Amino acid sequence: MAEQTNYCTDKKSNNRMYIVDLRETVFRNQTLEEALAESNSLWEPLYERMDPSETLWIIVSNKYRDGRMWPTAMAAADYIKNQVSFILKNIITVHNVSDTDADMVSTYDEILFFVKNKREYQFHKDAIRVSHVYEGNEWGGERKKGTSAYHDTEVRRYNPDGKDPGNVWLEEDRSQTSTQQVDETKPIPFDEAIRRCIRVGSQETEKIHTIWAADLADLVTRENREFVELDVSVLQSELEGES
What we know:
The protein is an alpha/beta fold. 25% of the residues lie in helices and 24% in strands. It has a domain at 16-122 and 189-237: Vaccinia Virus protein VP39 (Rossmann fold), CATH 3.40.50.150. It has helices at residues 23-28, 32-38, 43-49, 72-83, 190-201, 217-222, 232-242, and strands at 16-21, 55-61, 63-65, 68-70, 87-95, 108-115, 145-147, 154-156, 170-173, 184-187, 207-211, 226-229. The strands form four sheets. The chain has a six-stranded mixed beta sheet, with helices on both faces. Strand 11 (207-211), helix 6 (217-222) and strand 12 form a beta-alpha-beta unit. Helix 3 (43-49) crosses helix 7.
């Protein structure tokens, strides 16, 4: 994720964040086209329901089947953008490689980050910052400020609260040698990746609305947010009621 200042909207007290989990949809369908078509009824109702300050996070996994890798994340992003005017702000990659993987299976999950308005969405970067690599000497110790790719504002190149975790979220071990070089990396747990999304996209006590993501309920409530599972038919009826 590019460096930026935090943005917090006070326009409404019942701000919501949305999570859609497409992993099972991709797994049970025989083609990528069928998997995407199954989600067709979601995107217009979600777009109409969301406030410009709210964010949408879509979980997908890459898939290897019949001798080829499905480009699931980018295909889903293109499919959704062809349905409605969501803006794709970022794609977060979370690796899940393990030594026990014997076959060609999914080696990473991707989280698509969508907004309705690129200037008004809620995003709390400081909630997920990690320790700096070279404390006090980031960016060569020279550049102090830069511009944000998210809200077109000036930001500090070196933030004393920690550094941007980036798009590929890994745990870095620098304790094995006397220098600050990376000795070993390993993937962060999937739950940690979702926790970070929850923290940047919402504030405590706010509602996290989910679709096909019932297994995230405990994770949401541990972050002091309210878990709400949306029914697709209810979303569609809301849209029909507005037309």
